[in-house]
Amino acid sequence: MLRSIINLLKKITRRTIFFIVALVLALSIIFSNIGYIQKINLYILSKSISWTSIKAYEYIENLPEGSVVLLSADYAPSTKIENDPVVQGFLTQAFRKNLKVIAISLWPDGAVLLENNIRTVALKMNKKEDEDFVIGGYVVGGAVAVEKMGINLKNAIPLLKNSNAPFLSNIRNAKDLKLAFCVAAGDTLQYYIRILGSRYGVPVAGGCTAVMAAEMYPYIMSNQLIGLFPGLKGACDYQLLELKDQIDPNNVPESVRNMFPQSIIHLLIVIFIIIANLIYFYERYEIKRNLKR
Amino acid sequence: MKRELPLFITAITGIIIIINFIFPELTKGITETLRDWTITIASFAIILGILNLIIVNLRKSLEPITHLEDRIFSLMIILSLVITTIIGLVYGIKANIQNLLIFKINDNYIFPLIEMEFIKKDMNLFTGIIFNSVYTPLNSATFSLLAFFIASAAYRAFRAKNFEALILLLSAAIIMLGRVPVGDYLFSIFGIKISLIADYIISVLNAAAQRAILIAIGIGTIIISLKLLFGVEKSHIGKSE
After folding, report:
1. What is the ipTM of this complex?
2. What dotted CATH number matches A50-246?
């Protein structure tokens, strides 16, 4: 019996795995709209908000009204699902707190995504360009541009020179910023930590993709990074922290809904690992048994 | 001289940047100029990249030995590049919010129903069609292939062949389940909150290992920089003789 099951499992090819993943993903995306699943997801997520997310959220919450903050959205459409809700969450919190936002992107793709996000949130919250926020667009230069921000912000972000925003009159360089919030899918968050944070003393917080999160923890433990919203989980944390009681359990934010397909696919990968190890140990057992004979 | 001059420029530039780190006011002007030059030179790399892309793909599409599909793909790349550049230059990439008819999945039913709804959405020719309707889905689709490859790789490679592999395997499984709600849901039967264990692994054990790697990278970078400054490392000026 066991041998026949193992023999059957041995027949799993790459094609079979791809087919199972596609099927499970498609079904879980459809079922993520079911009210009961949404409620369970929402309940578990609200009970397990990461301490890194709470730390970043509380820091922003305690910033004085009118503080000027920098938002850098450095990601491409490929990680939009993870990064967009963090940008939207930050903008919602910043606008609610009446913080003044300078929005830029060190990635050309990010500039378009950022502009879409900031205009949508500003429209919802009745905030005006050049009064509550300025869009600095795509800033060329990566680490060099961040270095330039420490010396002269308007030289580093050329579009700021055309802006008449009153809150920019007191801003000369990055040292005048109360926070640099970077949402990254690459190295840029580390540029902000190493250059603006360590060299110019600007508090840095941010969000990143799940695969990058592991690299960021040493910076959080040493307080070089105030807090972090990592991956889709971080995105959910931000939405849950910001929206709190306003969330309708039958119509949860998109990031919370997207957690269901991600949960299922993680579970599926763990099941695949267990099956692979079962086959491996059974084969080893059979070899040993044959040798004894 | 052909090799000495670039090495001399590298050394001088590096020394100026190091001095600026210690005495920022002393070399403020010159480092600012050097940074501007870096950005300008980096921008020229885009032109170089575009030219390279056009030459490689033109050659591929014209060569008779290349497969017909490959020739079509190469032509498509050049065509996409030209169309995107023209539309971007003519219409700009500024967002322009307009009303748009979209399909929305209704959440109030057990099986989702598709409804139509008017929403405000960005519909500039560049951002609306090329960026939102072509580039974004293609980019997301390519990235989403990772799920398939990771599932397949995990099945074939994650075997507990020794103690170290077992630890790697267990921590990977705990992190995978601890970062999603289903992990806490399943392990609540045993009274275990797996997200807390995952948090411990990532913020204590992982942070310690990552810190060691970061310090090692830092020391390595200092050594490479010193080798560049003293002209020992010459790989950046081409093949060593």
Report:
1. 0.85
2. 3.40.50.10160
